[in-house]
Amino acid sequence: MKKVNIGLIGMEVMGKNLALNMESKGYSVAVFNRTGSKTEAFAKGPAKGKDILPTYTLKDFVNTLKSPRKIMLMVKAGKPIDAFIEKLVPLLNKGDLIIDGGNSYYKDTMRRNADLTEKGILYIGTGVSGGEEGALKGPALMPGGQPEAYALVEELFKDVAAKIADGVPCVSYIGPHGAGHFVKMVHNGIEYGDMQLIGECVWVFKNAFNMNSEEIAKIMSRWNGDNDVLRSYLIEITGDGLREKHKGTDEYLVDRTADITRMKGTGTWTVQSALELLVPIPTIAAAVFSREMSQDKDLRLKMSEKLTIQKEKYEGEKNALIDMAHDALYIAKISSYAQGMALLQGASKEYNFGLNLGNIARGWRGGCIIRAQFLDEITRAYEENPEMPNLLAAPRFTEVINGSLGKLAHFIDIAHRVGVPVLAMDSAYDYIVQLASSVMVSAQVSAQQRDYFGAHGYFKVKGLDDPRIMRTGDGKIREFHTEWMLPGRPEKEIIK
Question: Is 184 noted as a catalytic residue in this protein?
Answer without folding.
Answer: yes
